[in-house]
């Protein structure tokens, strides 16, 4: 029988990897407000870093405010925060031509007691580790993943495709964007993994599952995942955030 969740703990590790000159990933969380965010920016010069940081800051700020106001409709508040972050990035790029086209992926987890909502845009992911088994909760907004879902490409072909970096939905590149929203109830012992594609491009789900099946503190597990991704190639920035539900 599932045990009721009474609290959450979290830890995150980010690394620029072995090939990139800078880190365009950003993350932030507030256990008190029940908000956890990972973003992976894109754009020339420092534009990707600006987009991802803007998104994290805006979503955290707005959801903390809603929590203080005891906002009853948490998924609606989360979607509004994502919309506001999109507007902030898009308008900043409109005002500064050097930032034109900047954007970011986004995955947000927000909690209210055992209730959990996940919102995502792009190919940063959220996984659930429950009773030793890993399950991907989000669906990538990428060209190859959409081809796989349509049966036009195998998962193996998707991994090797020259188009694997093409995402079909991003935050800040258009005036409007709609996140996917997933809802579930957490159980005591669940671990949620929010990560950028610098992890999932290097490690198959089976390797991630093995690395999460160990008796380490959350920060140790997150660091272990990052190091494994670097060892496998580290071609991109890598961010791993782990959130544990405790009974």
Structural class: alpha+beta
Instruction: Please report which band the strand proportion falls in: under 5%, 5-15%, 15-25%, 25-35%, 35-45% or over 45%.
Output: 25-35%
Helix content: 25-40%
Give me the strand/helix succession: EEEHHEEEEHHEEHHHE
Report what the structure shows:
It is a single chain. By secondary structure, this protein is α+β, with helices and mostly antiparallel strands. It has one domain (7-246): PPM-type phosphatase domain (Phosphatase 2c, domain 1, 4-Layer Sandwich), CATH 3.60.40.10. It is built from 7 helices and 10 strands. Strands 1-10-9-6-7 form a 5-stranded antiparallel sheet. A 5-stranded antiparallel sheet has the order 2-3-4-5-8, covered by helices on one side. A hairpin with a 2-residue loop joins strand 6 (125-130) and strand 7. Helix 1 packs antiparallel against helix 2 (74-95). It is globular, with a radius of gyration of 17 Å. It starts with 6 loop residues before the first strand and ends with a strand. The mean pLDDT is 93.
SSE order and pairing:
Blueprint: E1 7-15, E2 25-30, E3 35-42, H1 47-68, H2 74-95, E4 103-112, E5 115-121, E6 125-130, E7 133-136, H3 143-149, H4 155-160, E8 180-185, E9 191-195, H5 197-200, H6 205-212, H7 218-231, E10 238-246
Antiparallel strand pairs: 1-10, 2-3, 3-4, 4-5, 5-8, 6-7, 6-9, 9-10
Helix pairs in contact: 1-2
